[in-house]
Every structure is written in structure tokens, then in C-alpha cells.
Amino acid sequence: MDRTMSLYDIKPGERAKIDELCMDGSMRRRLLDIGLVKDTLVECVGRSAGGDPSAYLIRGAVIAIRSEDSKNILITHCG
Prior knowledge:
By secondary structure, this protein is α+β, with helices and mostly antiparallel strands. The chain has helices spanning 25-33, 67-70; strands at residues 5-6, 15-21, 41-47, 54-58, 61-65, 73-77.
């Protein structure tokens, strides 16, 4: 049984493919503008000391995304 996972669920060093952005408004637009679209490969490269935000490698750029937002990005885990 597959469980729906969000970008928040992957740990540093793990990769995933984007399935869907479950948000509206300006944050959705910003994420689409940086290339976070379906089937984009994303790698978690680290978390801040407090655990929020996390840093992700997206299309060659490292982007920090707050946990509040990363929980609304559905993924397929790639390991």
C-alpha cells in the first residue's frame, strides 16, 4: 500500500519526484517559477538546526522551503 508523501517527509540525502503542489496563490506561483513542476527531481540537502526550513536542490539551485509549505508538495520517494 502506497502512502502519500510530502516533500517534508524526505531526509537530507534523499531524493524525490514532484507529483503535485497542493496550494494556491503566490506561494504556488513562486514554486512553479523556480521549476517545481510535476516529475522534477528534488534532493533534500539539509535542515536548519531547528528543523525549519529545509534546503532542497531543485534544478541546480539550492532553495529553502518552510515545513508549512513543503507539507503541501506531494512527491514520489526515490531514495
